[in-house]
Amino acid sequence: MPLDRAKPVLVTGATGFVGAAVARALVAAGRRVRALVRPTSDDSNLSGLDLERREGSLEDAGSLVAALEGCGALYHVAADYRLWVPRPETMYRANVEGTRLLMEAALAQGVGRVAYTSSVAVPGLRDNGVPADEITPSVLDDMIGPYKRSKFMAEEIVRNMAMERGLPAIVVNPSTPVGPGDVKPTPTGRMIVEAASGRMPAFVDTGLNIVHVDDVAAGHLLAEERGIIGERYILGGENLTLREILRRIAAIVGRRAPSVNLPVPALMPIAFAAEAVARITGKEPFVTRDGLRLARKKMFFSSDKARRELDYTARDAQAALTDAVAWFVGQRTAP
Question: Which domains does the chain have, with CATH numbers?
Answer without folding.
Answer: 9-183+210-238+299-316 (3.40.50.720)
